[in-house]
Amino acid sequence: MQRAQLHAQDVLQLFVTLLASLLLSFLLGNSLSWDAEIFKSSGSIFLATLAVVLTFYLFTQHLRSVAWGLVALSLLLGAGIFWQVPFVYFAVYPLGLWGGIRLFVESKQRLKLADFSAIIGNGILAACLSIGMLYNTVGFQSQKAIEALRITSDTLFHSAIAASIKNYGISAVGAHGLSEVPYYTASHAFFATISALSQQTVIETYLVLTPILLLPLCLAVFAFVTTQIHDNHFFQRYFAAYGSIALLMTKVFDAWGVLPSYFHSESYMLSLIFVALAMQLIMKRELSTFDQILLIGILFITANCKASSALMILGLLATRWAFFNRTKRDFFALFVSACVVLWFVSPVLTASLEHESNNSSREFWFFLKHWVTLRDFVAQDMLAEYWQILLFALLHFASGWFVILSRLDFSNPRSIVGDRITTFLLSAMVAAMAILAVTQIPGGGGYYFSNVVMWMSLPWFIPALVDQLAAVKSWHFFATTIIVGLLAGRIANQTREIPPGLPKDVAFFEQMYKIRDETPTDSVILVTKRDLTDYVHHGNKTQSCSMDAILFPAIAERAFVGVFNRHCNRFGYGLSSYFGDSKLLPAYIPDRIEVYSLPFAVRTSPFQD
Fold first, then answer.
1. Which end of the chain is more exposed for a tag (fewer CB within 10 A), N or C?
2. Which of left, alpha, beta for 499 (phi over 0: left; psi -120 to 50: alpha)?
3. CB 232 within 8 A of CB 223
């Protein structure tokens, strides 16, 4: 089979498998809490997502590149939502219809019955993996979850930012007017666009879109890139292997810092997709002019998804220039990429270094101990601490070490710097350990750097694993069956209905729904009385004081002024993470926005006159 035909076959496998995963995840998620209204609302999100995926396929076909197709789609959606031009992003519906027709015709001509059986099996695997790992007692039940305050702080925070982008074209939390917060706008813009396309709330979009699309898309893109790097057509085997490894890593190595962030972090999953596409370019012997432009575009989007992933890609590009390609073209790509990444990463990086970094060696030991659960095994002496760090480095980067050892020529130790893959992985490991040594991010967020190394090694680890299993006939079928069986019990035990939380007066939520449904989308709500803030702070507390004010813009999807509790520590979920906690920035209210003064009308116990 010619290379062009092989590439076309791989592209078809990618998109048909992705569509199967999308449909099966949607059906499985709804089957756990079957409700006509939930099915209808989540169905709107499903159709919008389907249109976006088919538009992605259309762009990929016309541009003859999955990477170019995804970059073009991202720029289209981002331009439409930030410029507040709905017809731009609504174009995905006619474009998606066109792409769907092309995909149907191409699949009918090129794919065989055996291909479809493998596709359905991997679709089931992806659905069980997504729903089994992501689905919780909330599921797709957004309104019930909101009124029971069973929504996590992260979901509220991200929904508030996405709602601000959706209605104002500005990245802000919306709890203090529209003071801009440079927090991973690309992923928020994506969710804002799907919310606008589906005409469903942003919170509901977060609860539905992540399990039905992002994890299957991440697995599919990595499987596709692996086929391209190794010049073969084992997409379905690689997809099954990636799903298996993703689950295994979280179960076996989670105590050593390989945390399952790619199962629940939208920005991380999106950035990992672009990491895979960037790696395919960086591994090329020579970069053409179009490759340079594409790489810069990928870094532009990745830096807006996750600063950590963009910095790791930039490090690989620097390693390429330093060790292999000292050409003017490579230097130009490195220089422009560095400017692009640092321009977008610097606000987040500066805030992290200012508030969360500690360069002392003692913090280094403490930080690594935070990852390791075998603390009782380690004696309290310096030798034991060095041993602990060594174990961490070995297990945290286990797949990377496997790839390096498998490629190393032991008769020629200098080959370690002559092999491109070995050099790239070693440089990434060193960079990740250095970052862990000097930066302590709340919640152990350093894995956003170090886990990337694991994913970088998988395009070489997975083929080696598949080759070893090749002797076992239909191993991927049995592996899929076992994993689905293991996850089936977890899925079956999911709560079908949200149990009632603490007693809440739904009048507050009804008022937020009224604001969302009846006020213009470009309105800023000015709260002039204390009734509104007192009501939420005393009657509807969230998981943390810092999140109480975020309830307003997250649910009503409008910017608010006057809802911050001045005595509340806003660290982590407010403007203080970027601008300091001593005072809030003045609320930003553009002239074009009409300001409403709403004296909160609901007067219920314990505030009854």
1. C
2. beta
3. no
